[in-house]
Amino acid sequence: MIRGLADSGVTILLTTQYLEEADQLAARIAVIDHGRKIAEGTSRELKAAIGSGFLHVEITDAARIDEAARLLEQRLGGNVQRSAEGAQLSIISGSPKAANEALGALVSAGIELSDFSMGSPSLDEVFFALTGQPGPGADGKEESA
């Protein structure tokens, strides 16, 4: 319904904690943290502002997720974002070379990867990069605004 209204030219102010929904429906997005607007733009602009080099890894042994997160943070100098689904980690990487070196450190430590990729951040990752906190509802629970 909202998509249909927007497609017909109606201006809609949508407030949501579901960043995937905002990514799909919003022409412009304002990121609000603790009641203050900290960023604004299109989804593409917000993603570009924090960089396109996001390394995503999924480790085979979930018991080693803390060790993997520490290694990635040491190698890449940022904060790891953990997925709510399991042993998936994401972190900003300054370059493909730095990402490759971080992956090598994981393999050298005997941490087996079931998947990895490098690409554009999600809006959840944009929120994390801007605030240092996981996106609202990223842990599977809604937060009040």
Structure commentary:
The structure is a single chain. With 145 residues, the chain is of the alpha+beta class. Helix content is 38%, strand content 21%. The protein has six helices and six strands. Strands 4-5-3-6 form a four-stranded antiparallel β-sheet. Strands 1-2 form a two-stranded antiparallel ribbon. Strand 1 and strand 2 form a beta hairpin. Helix 3 packs across helix 6 (123-131) and helix 4 (65-76) runs antiparallel to helix 5. It starts with a helix and ends in a 14-residue tail after the last helix. Residues 138-145 have low confidence and may be disordered.
Describe the SSE topology:
Blueprint: H1 2-7, H2 19-25, E1 29-33, E2 36-41, H3 43-50, E3 54-59, H4 65-76, E4 81-82, E5 88-92, H5 96-108, E6 113-119, H6 123-131
Antiparallel strand pairs: 1-2, 3-5, 3-6, 4-5
Helix pairs in contact: 3-6, 4-5
Keyword list:
145 residues; alpha+beta; four-stranded antiparallel β-sheet; two-stranded antiparallel sheet; elongated; disordered C terminus
In short:
This protein is of the alpha+beta class and 145 residues long. 38% of the residues lie in helices and 21% in strands.
Order of helices and strands: HHEEHEHEEHEH
Beta-strand content: 15-25%
Question: How many E strands?
Answer: 6
Q: Tell me the major beta sheet.
A: 4 strands, antiparallel
Structural class: alpha+beta
Helix count, DSSP H or I runs of 4 or more residues: 6
| Overall helicity | 25-40%
| Widest sheet, order of strands | 4-5-3-6
Radius of gyration equals 17 Å
Shape type: elongated
State the low-pLDDT regions, or none: 138-145
Question: How far apart, in Å, are the first and last alpha carbons?
Answer: 24 Å
Average residue-wise pLDDT: 84
